[in-house]
Amino acid sequence: MPFNSAGASPERSNRLMWITPDRIFYLGLLGVPSVRTMGTYTVYVAVTGTLRIRLGDGPWQTSEMAVVPPYEPHQVSVEGRLVNVIQIEAETVDSDALPGALKGRGAVDAPAFVRLVQQRQRELSEGGHAVDLMSLNFDQTFFGAELALRRMDSRIADVLTRIKQDPSAQGIAEEYAASAHLSFSRFLHLFKQEVGAPFRSFRTWKRARNLLHYVNRSANLAYVALDTGYPDSTHFSHSIRKVFGLKPSDIFAGSRKLAVYSHAPAAPSSPGTR
After folding, report:
1. Is residue 146 located within the same domain as residue 203?
2. Do 54 and 91 sit in the same domain of this protein?
3. Which domain holds residue 115?
4. Do residue 111 and residue 20 come from a single domain?
5. CB distance 231 to 131 below 8 Å
6. How many domains, the chain?
7. Distant-in-sequence contacts of 219-226, Cβ < 8 A, 24+ apart
8. Peptide bond between residue 268 and the one before it cis (omega within 30 degrees of 0)
9. pTM for the full model?
10. Are 259 and 5 in contact (CB under 8 A)?
């Protein structure tokens, strides 16, 4: 599987993003606490001090760590400038078999896991290029073992593979239904049942996620929009802001000192890179 440190400076950076096909680790700036809606189990861990989390219209909660279920709108803020974020693609794991610390919702009291993440944060950021992320197993690094896989209808699994291999592809739901030999209505129902999210929400997330491979590159945003499958800059900006809570220009501005280590999009991932 191809690996690169896209745009990474030869100088050591204390901000980094490690992207595999099914996982993301981010140590960097959080940005303003706007509403964001991402298709992953998202774990926020404070670098120092505490963070504040708000799910939907609920109250603000304070903790060192917070967990947000997939596709749940939320806002988050941190005391310091940096935050640790772990993201696990929802369709890849058995939700009933997640580690205890990941089964929470909102503020979570899991001091042992917080210390582990902060230790991994220091090892990865201070190690710089001495750390070969390609050789690391993501789940082993943060959870001590492979997370249990989600069982899925093979027809829907094939559709997921196609989307993940090329998130910018313009295929529509009707075409995927036909390829799965399902009626359109049956396809949409089965997709939501198996994946846990509507087809449109899943596609929106995967396309926005693909942007993360570009964030520290010097590139015209209009070209990035086309490369990542958006029909125009307006659609691009609206969709990215809905997912990440930030305008694309703000994401790129905040990623200038970010070292991005990415495995090229592919599915399914091998156990060694999950």
Report:
1. no
2. yes
3. 3-150+268-273
4. yes
5. no
6. 2
7. 221/248, 221/249, 221/252, 224/248
8. yes
9. 0.89
10. yes
Q: Is the same domain home to 138 and 191?
A: no
- Give the separation between CA 180 and CA 158, rounded to whole angstroms: 8
131 and 56 share one domain? yes
Render the burial of 20-49: b for 16+ CB within 10 Å, e for the rest.
bbbbbbbbbbbbebeebbbbbbbbbbbbee
Helix, strand or coil, per DSSP, at residue 242: helix
15: β partners: none
User: In the predicted model, what is the mean pLDDT of the chain?
Assistant: 87
- The rounded distance, in Å, linking the Cα atoms of 84 and 117 is 8
Handedness of CA 265, 267, 271, 274 (dihedral sign): positive
Determine contact, residues 31/82, Cβ cutoff 8 Å.
no
Rounded average pLDDT over 23-35: 91
Give the pLDDT band (50/70/90) at residue 273.
Answer: very low
